[in-house]
Structure prediction request, 119 residues.
Amino acid sequence: MASVKESLSALLQPDGAMCTAIVDANSGMVLGQEGTGLDLELAAAGNTEVVRAKMKTMKSLGLNDAIEDILITLGTQYHIIRPVAAHEGLFIYLVLDKSKSNLALARRACQEVESNLAV
Prediction:
């Protein structure tokens, strides 16, 4: 198991990783953050709404499933949101420079961190 600090450091290892956070989706508060490039407090609050909206939509549709990750593609960045299955209400948030990153490797890093995160 890895601590929040170790997990955040691991998320910044893939090429193009700019910043990352572990977020409490119940409150929108950041539990830990690393890197630069965005106001992660503001981004965490906004992306909490994204997670809540998707979960509400899934419930309305009667989908008995779980979110693996949510990918938001911007002109110059990728934003990955990955709920932490073992800790309901938490999600990993990772921002990547689109021109420097490998999306598959970044998603894999999120998956590995999620499976080893100790909160």
In short: The chain has a mean pLDDT of 95.
